[in-house]
């Protein structure tokens, strides 16, 4: 049945190297290896739902966080149950910590940059 209501299919991140950034997120999320080529990679959620896709862009310029002159546009929020373990794992595979707003009770979030410079948050659930 056709409908005028769109379905949420994917989020696409521009980057300088689609295979490299797709591999980073596959490791971070423990998802299957990405599919595609140098210009476009697809990372499929093993539980179904939206995909994350990566597009190689000539002269890519990473967002700056925080910067009112060059805003981030959007970021990914990823939920975790063990902030410390998730933090260590993210850094080990190439993320860079930008801001830590986690609290002693284990709540809060930490902002990281992926290898291409896109901000993403690990959020304690």
UniProtKB/TrEMBL annotation:
Domain VOC: 7-125
Protein's recorded name: Enzyme related to lactoylglutathione lyase
UniProt keywords, alphabetically: Lyase
GO molecular function: lyase activity
Taxonomy of the source species: Bacteria, Bacillati, Actinomycetota, Actinomycetes, Pseudonocardiales
């Amino acid at each position: 049945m056709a409908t005028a209501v769109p379905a949420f299919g994917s989020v696409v991140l521009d980057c300088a190297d689609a295979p490299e950034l797709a591999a980073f997120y596959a490791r971070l999320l423990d998802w299957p290896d990405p599919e595609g080529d140098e210009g476009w990679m697809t990372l499929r959620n093993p539980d179904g739902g939206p995909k994350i896709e990566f597009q190689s862009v000539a002269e890519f310029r990473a967002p700056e966080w925080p910067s009112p002159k060059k805003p981030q546009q959007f970021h990914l929020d990823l939920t975790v149950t063990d902030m410390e373990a998730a933090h260590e794992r993210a850094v080990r595979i190439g993320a860079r910590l930008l801001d830590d707003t986690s609290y002693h009770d284990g709540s809060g979030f930490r902002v990281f940059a992926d290898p291409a410079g896109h901000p993403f948050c690990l959020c304690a659930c």
